Amino acid sequence: MAEILTNAPEFSVSEIAQAVKRTVEDEFGHVRVRGEISGYRGQHASGHAYFTLKDENASIDAVVWKTSYARLTFKPQEGLEVIATGRLTTFPRSSKYQIVIENIEPAGAGALMALLEERRRKLHAEGLFARERKRPLPYLPRVIGVITSPTGAVIRDILHRLADRFPSHVLVWPVRVQGETCAPEVVNAIEGFNALLPDGPIPRPDLLIVARGGGSIEDLWGFNEEAVVRAVAASGIPVISAVGHETDTTLIDYASDMRAPTPTAAAEAAVPVRAELVGYVDDLGARQRQASRRIASTARDRFRAAAAGLPRPGDLVSGQRQRLDHAASNLLACLRHSVQDRRVHLARVEPRLTPHLLLRRQTELGERLGNLSLRSDNAVRKTVDRARFTYDPKAPRLAAATAQSLERKHAQLAAIGPKLSPGTLRAEIRHGQAQLSPLATRLYASMLQGLTLRGAKLAQAGKLLGSLSYKSVLARGYAVIKDDQGNLVHQRDGLKPGDMVAIEFADGAVGATIAGSPVIKKKSRPQSDPDRQESLF
After folding, report:
1. 3, exposed or middle or buried, with CB in 10 Å at 0-12, 13-18, 19+?
2. What is the C-alpha to C-alpha distance for residues 221 and 251, in angstroms, rounded to an integer?
3. Which helix H or strand E contains 66, and what residues bound it?
């Protein structure tokens, strides 16, 4: 077969791909594409966003780089019809063309309203619009924070209305009220006012007003952003929303604590009328002064009536003076009588002071010691019996195995004995020692390591035992009660009168006898010293 001759140049695949890429980028360097977003799953781990723009007949891959995604006013959403602005390019690795998007805007007012309604339902489901979250406005705020444009008519209307009603300290946080930077600036303003300290160099506002004049839905869209709504809902300072005119509604109107139809109405709702407040305070002051005079007059009349019925001061103390004189005359007789009573009481108690109590205690401790000794002997016997039961059946087999091993060793020595000379034996011994020395060193190191590990485990177990021991509980004032068998007593029903028990405290144990139900005795009055004078009354 003859070779086909041609002058057509040869291109590599990469050269063709780069040529197509340059052609597409030169021809479609700036395009606006309208389509529905499909396959959007949020940002990739790298920060980029990948999805598809489609209509009823075709589709095109789309990518939004990380740097462009942060500047988007409207973020991509699945199923949203948008107008994407960007440039076409190709991806040589897969021979596909795609649009690199730099800006996204909804396709018409209908799409904006659909997006607004969807966002409203989402935030309402999260409870950000709940009535329970709304807080009452302060009656008379000392400092009012206003978030609006510093160059518009809104701030002048608010300041003028506040000056007419009740002059207050106003802090203005300037922001852009429309455009791409509107939402982040409003969020920063709300968070910045909340971050101020009450006693700082800049006072913390008691009330916030977010205000803007009227406009189209596109102009007011910055106040429908989810970040702004969440910032208003999370604000620790009550917020009044005054965005647009009466017919304009934004999402922050639902999240704020109060919605004002206009910025002027927001200023009226923020403070009361100073003249009315002064008149109300003057009226209250007059009523208070009249009430004070009436109360003072009534108290004066009651005091005079009470003073007229009081006895003379000398009559009040005459009875007590007479009682004191009578007690002083009987003091010596009472002292002698008190000493005699103490002697009679001591003579009555003295016969009962015998060593019987000490002997009884000694007997109880002796019985308890005997019981413990008997239990110890029984435990030792049981342990020995268990060991004997375990090892006795194995003793015959151990003796037989030992005898067989000795016979084999004797037979081996008898077989090789004539062949071994003294020099050979010494060589064998040295060879055995050379083999055993490393093993002995490793065995010694292993034993030391094992002992160290077991010592550490034992110390740890000791600490754990100390922390879990009931001794620490006894040190706090508690006690453990055991019966005469050494068993713990958990309930009162396990004891009856006459039972011997042992009560263990933190510093030792004592014996006791159950006497019956507890009887709470009243504290007896301390016996006074016969030579000390008692009360006369």
Report:
1. exposed
2. 9
3. helix 66-69
Please answer whether residues 397 and 531 qualify as being in contact, where contact means their C-beta atoms are separated by less than 8 angstroms. no
Over the stretch 405-431, which tens digit does the pLDDT of each residue have?
A: 777 777 776 676 565 566 666 676 777
- Is residue 534 within 8 A of residue 338, CB to CB? The reply is yes
Q: Are 208 and 235 in contact (CB under 8 A)?
A: yes
Tens of pLDDT along 24-69? 888 888 899 988 888 888 888 888 999 999 887 888 999 999 988 8
Residue type present at position 353:
L
258 SS3 class: strand
CA–CA distance, 104 with 34 (Å, rounded to integer): 10
Residues 6+ apart with CB under 8 A from 103: 68, 71, 72, 73, 84, 85, 86
Lowest average pLDDT, out of 166-170, 253-257, 388-392, goes to 388-392
The DSSP H or E segment spanning 155 is: helix 153-165
> What does the chain come to in residues?
537
* CA pseudo-torsion sign 473, 474, 477, 483: positive
C-alpha span between 506 and 513 (Å, rounded): 20
Amino acid at 451: L
- Tell me if the pTM is above 0.85: no
- Let me know if 121 is exposed, middle or buried by CB neighbors in 10 A (0-12, 13-18, 19+): exposed
Query: Quick one: CA torsion of 527, 528, 530, 531, rounded to 10 degrees?
Result: 160
Question: Where are any strands of DSSP class E within 10-58?
Answer: 31-38, 49-54
Spatial neighbors of 65 by CB under 8 A, at least 6 apart, are 48, 100
For 516, the token pair is 């019956």
Secondary structure letter of residue 100 according to DSSP: E
Give the model's confidence band at 470: pLDDT under 50 very low, under 70 low, under 90 confident, else very high.
Answer: low
DSSP string, 445-508: HHHHHHHHHHHHHHHHHHHHHHHH-THHHHTTT--EEEETTS-B--SGGG--TT-EEEEEETTE
CA-based angle 178:180:186, to the nearest 5? 65
Widest Cα–Cα separation across the chain:
160
pLDDT of residue 208: 96
CA 384 to CA 159: how far, in whole Å? 100
Determine the Cα–Cα distance for residues 42 and 329; give it in Å rounded to an integer: 104
User: Residue 9: its pLDDT value, please?
Assistant: 78
Nearest to 230 by CA among 262, 252, 201, 197: 252
* 495: amino acid identity, one letter: L
Q: For residue 503, what are the β-bridge partners?
A: 481, 510
